[in-house]
Fold these 3 entries.
Entry 1:
Amino acid sequence: MLVGVSLRRAAGAGHTDEHLDELARLVDTTRTEVVGRLKQQLSAPSANLLLGRGKVAELAELVRALSATLVVFDDDLSPSQGRNLERALECRVMDRAEVILDIFATRAKSREAKLQVELAQLEYLLPRLARMWVHLSRVRGGIGLRGPGETQIETDRRMIRRRLARLKRELVGVQRHRAVLRHARRHVTTLALVGYTNAGKSSLLKALTGSDALIDDRLFATLDTLTRESNVSPGLRVRVVDTVGFIRKLPHHLVASFRATLEEAGQADVLVHVIDASHPDWEQQLAVVDEVLAELDDGRKALVHAFNKMDVVVEPALFRARVADHYTNATFMSAARGDVAEFQATVRRLVRPAAQLA
């Protein structure tokens, strides 16, 4: 069961259906079947249950009627909200952040990505350990039955904190290693592909370099940073870096964990913002990516807005005319079809002066 909550008079209040559509795609990426949805509009979220009590009762009836074994909320749940909802619904409850972490855990392949995912998982888990020990409350109370649960939780917390400290130290080493590699390649112009998940960054990398990058119509197909070299014109060679995609409500601790990877975008000579022009909500996706880039970009590097999947855009000529003058170095392409000549021409125009200066 998917559950979406919108706040009256809040930005995006009318986009609950679109947000649940995206959540459904996230859940589908985990190979889980969606059996139903529930929405509620609130003046303010409940501190105990997020939803109103009447809506929780309605949700519990739906869960039983549809034989659902999992309820996924599109919004972050506090540890107490998650615990109270599991009691009320009598089934497992997850929030959007936990689903994203699960996807990342299954997609991580390199040692670096696995370190980053484990760090994010432990940061998420630490304040929620009590939920794992809820079964202790069902044990008959009395002398000798009150201490062990608390002791075990504290033991687990200490173990997690020690592991977190070790992971952070290892990721510092990863950052240093990346810095050394970047310094060795400082004379080669770098293009960093950034954008919303499933916008087509890996398809563009493959079209430019012939790389065997994973191409999959699922969210977060790419977690490991992939770097390849390409000739955008005779005598002009560039490094192309494919980075992890962004998404609405991306957990903050996940962004922090992937800081070493995102630094590849921050240190690039040219940022290529790949946009899925065929998506009905592409403008909101673009804004989400811009928010993250604002933290990484020093404002001095070149930026290209690459509108991808133009082959499936309705009235592409009208789309071009509407957006061309509103975005920096707007270029239009279909990476899956290999139609990237216009994009390459834009890159040549931006890179040539820098290459000649070097």
Note: Residues 108-168 form one domain.
Entry 2:
Amino acid sequence: MILHNFETKNSILNKFIAELRDVTIQKDSMRFRKNIERVGEVLSYELSKTLNYTPQTTVTPLGEKVIPLVTSDIVICSILRAGLPFHQGILNYFDDAENGFISAYRHHEGNSDDFEVIVNYFAAPDLEGKTLLLVDPMLATGRTLENVLKGLEGYGTPKEIHIVSVIGSEEGISYIDSVFPETTQLWIAAVDGKLNSKGYIIPGLGDAGDLAYGTKR
């Protein structure tokens, strides 16, 4: 897997990540969603540099100009529910992309630390020969992405796979490196060192879905 970790480079992305982590600022759910959206936009710009381009002629009021434009067939596939604002940020830049949505959640039996990832809803277009962007804001253990990859097998074989995340753990990144094709590229804004006993990223930012949309039962 090819890792693009933007925590190693100073940019405006640092501000958005700092605000997402800040326990005071993240109480503003609208700002939290907006910051996730903005991270999606920055990572999309960087990812766009690796796509396929073909020169095309654009007609202006005063003449013509040849401009290289993206020709990759892109599918943005997001994991609900924290993936929704992140998806929108990516869609802001790849506005011609097809879209897919996946419901995946952790099921803790009896509130124990052990859990299984349950995937029970898919809505995705044909992926055959396309550029798949798998969107998951929090890459913790990597098991959700593994299950999603298995679930998408019936939708065709993508030409290339890009995983886009806000924050990930070293353990989770190592795990998906072992289960995804070696040509997969991971675009991530920050990497943290460890997970707690329940599989949450430390220091991370908390439950991204709850912070974006309110607590769940």
Note: The helical segments are 13-21, 29-48, 83-93, 143-151, 170-179, 208-213.
Entry 3:
Amino acid sequence: MKTTMKKFFRMAALSLGMAALIAASGSSANATFSYSTTVSIDPPGGSSATTPGGVTIAPATPITIGGVTETGFSARFGNTIVSLYGTARTGFFVPGTNTLDLADVAAISTTSTPPGDSFTVGYTILLNLTNDGPPPSTLPLTIKGRLTVSGASTGSGTITNFIFPPSSGTVNIGGVSFSGGVDSYSPPTINGAFGSIGGTVTAAVPEPGSIALLGCGLAGAFGLFRRRKAKLTA
């Protein structure tokens, strides 16, 4: 009897392993994903451009954060410059919830006298969410918002952020359902630390077919065990 039970557990383990392997090979839910963002300040300026409000828009000086070089655009009004930079991240897994850093924000001001510089600029973030495959596939998403700079100077000032709706939604890529949105903002410090525009994305669990496949593997192993037991009893 002990020998028969050992065989059953071996068969069950083998069935589970094979079912999991088949499920993994047929389900994008076990793949890794990556994303990158491209940002622009509206109206986007391939070269310097001045808006009707007197804000000058131009490509920002590239920066390197964590070994990644980020590029973007800057908006200048008076002696204050606000810059937005695109970001990228690789190798996050699904299913699960992941935090997205959609854009980094910097602010520099040389204005020293009150009331400081105040202006508003719109921006666009193009998010490319990629299933690393195989086969690889990419889904672009567009996010629009507005930054409002108030009283920026060398010693003070605030920068608030507003995201235009829709700020959240659900998309499907590579057979996996992603739900998420832009839900966080850390303002930059004038002449200090960077800020960021962020969000979260949650990937669905593997589809029911994968779970059913695991169940079939167990059922098959249990059926084999019962047939062998019947033969021993006879």
Note: Residues 48 and 182 are 29 Å apart (CA to CA).
